[in-house]
């Protein structure tokens, strides 16, 4: 691998070197791992930085694993991953059997398909961890833009998880950004050299260059190290060819960059192409073979074995050209990736087809590269070859290489002879590319299919592909209701092929469309086909269609199904249960069981959405910015619906903190798109969030009017699956506006609907609403009952609001000490959330109680004897039920005691009790 600068000396790269050195030092010391992506234009010096890093790491005893992305190999699923992990193959014996099997099957080292759940990412991480126990590891990926999509997805997975291992990953990619889809951190941009740095490098590489030539090269190269090294190489020929066309007599002070006629990379490629064309035909042929398949053993031995005559002359010509060299293993290595591009550009179509045929003949029948070369060598329709491509594409997709499978199906469609077969293959390609995260490519394939008739037997699959792209890419749900009900009808008819569980996947898409828009057509279609749907789909239907009337017991049923799906590692079922869990705000533990490392790889976007919302509900508000990062990533991937939803979840944090300016900005960005898509899930939520922000600032009438648009008093509306979230808001706003009767009617409606039997969060919000509407005589008991609801402390923001309201009530009733303690508990929670308007309200109440806002917690020795006994037992880890059994009290009474104990001790969790109690 060449340095990309002609020599191995780096000029003007101190910033990047310091960053990479810190990464290596972190792994050397065992403190942490890290991942860095270097981004820049061709020739800017990314490869030189990688070489510098490899040299440093090798010196320090790192295990170095490396791969260079190859455009010719980008259709081989897991090809780059195979190259990186192959040196660690012996470590696979230490993996759990299911991980080892998944990894070896995905990499083609063992026959068969990986188990469902797709554990390749987790297995690769475990393999690296095993090696890291022996010493630090460096992974180097050059030309990331040409790495096959399956391997790139695993590298993203590793990028996010190596922080706890002494592992450093350094990747390099072109600056067009396409290779960085889904990468979780921002790349390091490798920028052009400054004028003085460029002069230094040019003098070092070409010390005898005349002053006029120096000025011309500096202007043309624009700080690109490769251009500085290469443009002066053949000045006469290249000036004649227009590569360095600047006239003599330029002034000493040149602008930073002159207007380009074409990109610098293209001009450098032309420099290399001229050199290729000047080579003997046999030498150019060898370079072409290596450019088309650098893994096909194209080296000195291959040349000597008789590709063409004069082997030694071929070797000498290639070495003398400076375009490539032979490494220690006797393999041909291009000086720079642009050389590979130049070799391909310099060859004619006929020469490329001939080289592909030659490469295919050298490979085994079962080598997947052989089929790719045969396809590239084909000159016209070939149904036999098309059928083989289709079979291979299907097999690759089953191994997890959806995008690579789609590429093979696309090529099969081009080589096939029947129009019906062409449409079928393109439809499968569209589905595979959509599942593989290449939505723009899928949309392009669908446009191609629509140019002709769609065969009836493939119509359901075509409908699914259209809906997939419309929902995720175009943020359009109209086709969901136009196509999916009929497609479900066709798929559930006797004798119809199931297309690999397509009924389940269609039902999920229809459920999403219905939940997002509230359109009853989707719910009706799902109800009609209920007997054909799995328990997971039926649970989703119950949890989302009309929860006040259909979702009773949903959280309990969810736990049972989660245990079953997690045990079997059923990724498809996990997706459905994730959606059901979102409806009932299921505990984090359920998400972890559903989506451990083995599942997250296949479900990253959906899990990220669920976790963003969980972070808001459970008071982890430092995660707010993560929503925006996820939105940017989704936008780059073409998942525009996900991007909209991530920004919608970010708006929750803004509303909670009373940031109305930020909230307006988010509404302006996503509101029109959501309204155009009739996406009530977002537009109604935005109204609720505006109301929540108004409550934060004490504008209760405004909040009431906004919330009344969503849910009338005393009625739990149909079509509002998340009715429980604004439920407590509506009761508070009604009370603050003097509409007590409406608040009581709303609580009564919640009780009548048995809202508390849906989930723990539903139960807490109903109990909280009941507490704030209770009369003075029953107020304290009602607040205690709300805090005794299992898991009540998890809803940090809601609990803080409840404590604020309770503290204000206590103050008004003259219970000054209890009021101050309760208000301080609320104040600490709001401060932790950085919810400034709510903090101000707490302080106003404390001032009204005529008590300073600090140093007000009650010492532990002021607990009553019974409270102390309860606190000591709870601090040992016992549940409320176990403590109640020990003290012969009910669990509800234990919860009431804890409600009083926490503010007195100044703690907010059971775990903090032990540290707050006296030592005796």
UniProtKB/TrEMBL annotation:
<dbReference type="InterPro" id="IPR041664">
    <property type="entry name" value="AAA_16"/>
</dbReference>
<dbReference type="InterPro" id="IPR027417">
    <property type="entry name" value="P-loop_NTPase"/>
</dbReference>
<dbReference type="Pfam" id="PF13191">
    <property type="entry name" value="AAA_16"/>
</dbReference>
<dbReference type="InterPro" id="IPR036388">
    <property type="entry name" value="WH-like_DNA-bd_sf"/>
</dbReference>
<protein>
    <submittedName>
        <fullName>LuxR family transcriptional regulator</fullName>
    </submittedName>
</protein>
<keyword id="KW-0067">ATP-binding</keyword>
<feature type="region of interest" description="Disordered">
    <location>
        <begin position="238"/>
        <end position="257"/>
    </location>
</feature>
<feature type="domain" description="HTH luxR-type">
    <location>
        <begin position="856"/>
        <end position="920"/>
    </location>
</feature>
<dbReference type="InterPro" id="IPR016032">
    <property type="entry name" value="Sig_transdc_resp-reg_C-effctor"/>
</dbReference>
<keyword id="KW-0547">Nucleotide-binding</keyword>
<dbReference type="InterPro" id="IPR000792">
    <property type="entry name" value="Tscrpt_reg_LuxR_C"/>
</dbReference>
<dbReference type="Pfam" id="PF00196">
    <property type="entry name" value="GerE"/>
</dbReference>
